Amino acid sequence: MKKEIEIVLITFLVFVLVFIFSVYYVSEENKEAISESAVKYETYIHSKDVWEPAANTHKITRTKKYLEQGVSYVPILMFHNVFPVPQNASELTKSFTIDPKLFESMMDYLHKNGFTPITLKELNEIWKGNLPYPKKPIVLTFDDGDKGVYEYAYPILKKYNFHFVIFLITKYTGMHTNFYMSKDEVKEMLDSGLCEVGTHTRDHVNLKRSPILTKIYEIKACTNDVKRLLNYTPTSFCYPFGGFDRDSKEILKAYGYTMAATEIPGLANLKDDPLLLPRIKIDGRENLQAFINKVNLKP
Ligand SMILES: [Zn+2]
């Protein structure tokens, strides 16, 4: 009888130990992230319901006041792919894809009209007063890391010596697919000094709709991927599907990000929250004149 109790007790003890070990093991991946940002959360997590996104300040109605204060506005353009789009492609593909010939004429327009394409890193330095204000600054951003950007847009951007930003979905980078840029292609653009590499989560998830641990994992994982693959520390981010909330913004801050792009339409200015920057979408179905109108938008 005594022996039986002993067996039961030992079995129970072994079970408890295995359980504790497995819980520890599973949580290990996120542990570092949680402790790193835990302090930051404390300051806001309890007042969640009173949070107002700073994005409200993007509203163009407020811009008159800023103009009077001498604040300049910068268009941050949102591109996806640059590729000869087939006639029978879906409307969605057409909208996200710029024909290389049209892209060339867009860049030619910017060149002939004295625009200065800069990266978000440079824009941040300009806003901080560490870099001089260039003539007609504009930011060209490319979401998702589509291969067409390397194959079709990069040679044109290189020709004009234009700076630009790519936002990588890092689970695809280095997978050698026909759709996304390879690690070597990204590295080549980064080494040219023209390209800033930003992140766009590892799995392209809508952070606003994700649980807190997913938000932490997605931001931590894509940041580490870029560090590991390219030996480069990203400081600019782009919210997939434009989905942001205060948690994701605070996590970005905790991981050292200084600039983040949304899909809120409008011009950016230094009064904006730099982690909630508005952008102007460039639609592949529109013509050159529509592009010209967009880059010359006045607040
Ligand atoms: Zn995207």
From TrEMBL:
Assigned keywords, A-Z: Membrane, Signal, Transmembrane, Transmembrane helix
CDD domains: CE4_NodB_like_5s_6s
Gene Ontology molecular function: any one: hydrolase activity, acting on carbon-nitrogen (but not peptide) bonds
A Pfam family the protein falls into: Polysacc_deac_1
Domain NodB homology: 136-299
InterPro entries in the record: Glyco_hydro/deAcase_b/a-brl (IPR011330), NODB_dom (IPR002509), Polysacch_Deacetylase (IPR051398)
TM region(s), chain numbering: 7-26
Top-level taxon of origin: Bacteria
GO biological-process terms attached to the record: carbohydrate metabolic process
Name of protein: Polysaccharide deacetylase
Organism the protein comes from: Caldisericum exile
